[in-house]
Design a protein that fits this description.
The structure holds two protein chains of two kinds. By secondary structure, chain A is of the alpha/beta class. Helix content of chain A is 41%, strand content 21%. Chain A folds into two domains: 4-169, 3-Layer(aba) Sandwich (Rossmann fold); 184-309, Rossmann fold (3-Layer(aba) Sandwich). Chain B contains ten helices and seven strands. The chains are: A alpha/beta, B alpha/beta. Chain A binds chain B through residues 26, 47-48, 50, 52-53, 55, 57-59, 61-71, 73, 88-89, 92-93, 96-98, and chain B through 64, 106-108, 114-116, 118-119, 121-122, 125-134, 136-137, 143, 155-156, 159-160, 162-163, 166-167.
Chain lengths: 311, 275
Amino acid sequence: MSKQIAIRDAYGEALLELGKKNEKIVALEADVGASTKSILFGEVFPDRYFNVGISEFNMVAMAAGFAQEGFIPFVNTFAVFMTTRASDPIQSLIAYDKLNVKMAGTYAGLSDSYDGASHQAITDIAFVRSIPNMTVISVSDAVETKKAVEAIAEYDGPVYLRLSRAPAPVIFDENYDFQIGKGVELRTGKDVAIIATGTILHNALKAAELLEEEGIEATVINIHTIKPIDEEIIINAARLTGAVLTVEEHSIYGGLGSAVAEVLSQNYPTPVDFVGATTFAESGDYDELLEKYGYGARTIADKAKQLINRK
Amino acid sequence: MTKERKKELQDLCLKFRHDLIDILHSIQTGHPGGSLSCTEIVTTLYFEKMNIDPKDPQKEGRDRFILSKGHACPMLYLNLAERGFFPKEDLKHLRQTDSHLQGHPCFHKTPGVELSTGPLGMGLSAGLGMALGEKLKKTDAKIYVLLGDGEIQEGGIWEAAMAASKFKADNLIAILDYNGVQLDGTLEEIMPLGDVASKFESFGWNVLHCDGHDVESVSAAIDKAKESTDKPSMIIARTVKGKGISFMEGKNTWHGKPISDEEYKMAKAELGGGN
């Protein structure tokens, strides 16, 4: 297996590097800095680091104030708390006025596995995606994380950045050309398209390998920008394969799968199926939970085969 | 404050009350009660205290005002128009389709509005972010946040109160429009605040008091707040909801109610003078 790097470590280091290059970067934290790794920034730039304690609502609303002063605030906490407890300032301050705030929600999907369903974020994409003016990015490996942090700092406007807790295999190399709004085709095959986001992309790639062993050719696409979504790459994949399976560590209602289905139903109606959450999960080993809740490579491959039969 | 200056500001407040009643009667929507209770506070800020330049609304180092109790925005708009941020003719289109004057303050539509507000309880946190931003930029700017008394029932206010104290935001000046009445009734009936001065003092704030309908008292309290070191300031301004129009005073039913033709005539007669 390829080298593994935790997304949160990659994020913390990228934020620190950004802080060295741009003195307009400030970071806000709600008492989980050792977990989000925003602490790496805070140790070097204590004057630009604001740990507000356990007050996510206050933290995100404060970030709106910093943005109005011309700073670029990166707000850090668990994805589940960011998008529930701070939902009000995200929607009515930051998105409404298109403020230049970057909301980094970590421990997304089931990645905070042992803490249980209360700490696992499976509704965050649905919320932020439904808000006008929001850009929504979900990263799959350490390289993409670093490139995404750089790109969203350059972009002027509100961004939700979805990060995993878990160590993840490194898929991309340093030459990877990350562009907000551009999907990435990692494999091309004519039988079925698997469209994934986040670290679970790795299982989508493994599923494609399993399918290949059975003589089925799968396209695999990484959608790191869920909003605005790359319609062209999705429509082209549907044209080529006639069957699209989405994979995300998130509810199948309102996330990547819904976004892909919206694109296809309006542009190129195609059979679509979804790998994602329909229930709360539980505490346990991360890989065991992924298997149990339907995110294993074998499960994805089997679902792809069933979908092909619907063509 | 000289007597002449005080008279000028009082006259301006009276004019704003007249204009407010004219506009809200004309459009048959909006919030008279809370607009009338903050008239002297907002007018003192915009015409006596704040370092702002309507010709250069984004000037670096300017003072900023956040109307956290966003429903009182008619009074904010009257002040902004009078200061020249936008034409006074715009005021008659308040709350109407295609107007830049929204039912609650909107930063990206209305010149001079520093932050969108409306959902209560967020202005103090955002003001703290601005205050800390000004500190990073090493300016002398002050950030003023006007809070409703009902509004501070929101939990976020107390998160911000703790944080402002921790970060020593002495350039943050909050003013509490303490009129004692909220939408559904009096604060005592709905959710009493208890000893609000002691609460903020125990959170580490510099707490001051003033008569919120006396421009000289408001002005003096702001001057004291500006001298605070290390502590954010909370000015508790005693006010009357619906101030100036007897049948509206202290009545929760006038939080947001259309003004009938008969009520309009009575209100205008009571205000007298001015226009």
